[in-house]
Specification:
Structural class: alpha+beta
Distance between the termini: 51 Å
Number of strands: 5
Helix content: 10-25%
Number of helices: 3
Order of helices and strands: HEEHEEEH
Radius of gyration: 15 Å
Strand content: 25-35%
Shape: globular
Length: 112
């Protein structure tokens, strides 16, 4: 008789909030860059836009800074909710982050 491990029977997913109170589920069991590209494709963003995820408290996950071959599941806890953010480079080299979720205050009062 074979027993399945708990991790083998659980489906990995994360929920991403974006747009006008839209949400989508994604499987984080892939490389970080692949996940980011899939999210951009799903929400209709151009490939030249840099995106990342933040948790519901506004803390950026920094998937963009992770090693290219790292799996997103190493950084993202399954079954959690994240907010899509746009990352832009400023002239001084610093980064600015803009939540890509309208009505953010309705979802979380302490974000960003």
């Amino acid at each position: 008789m074979f027993e399945k491990s708990a991790s083998a029977t659980q489906t990995m997913f994360i929920k991403v909030l974006y747009g006008d109170n839209e949400e989508a589920l994604f499987n984080p069991n892939c490389r970080t860059l692949l996940l980011l590209e899939h999210i951009k494709e799903h929400v209709g963003y151009q490939s030249d836009i840099d995106i990342d995820l933040s948790d519901e408290n506004g803390f950026i996950v920094h998937l963009l800074r992770s090693p290219p071959l790292q799996y997103a599941s190493d950084l993202l806890e399954s079954r959690r909710t994240f907010i899509l953010v746009k990352v832009s480079k400023n002239e001084d080299g610093s980064e600015s982050v803009e939540p890509m979720l309208k009505n953010l205050r309705a979802k979380q009062t302490q974000c960003f």
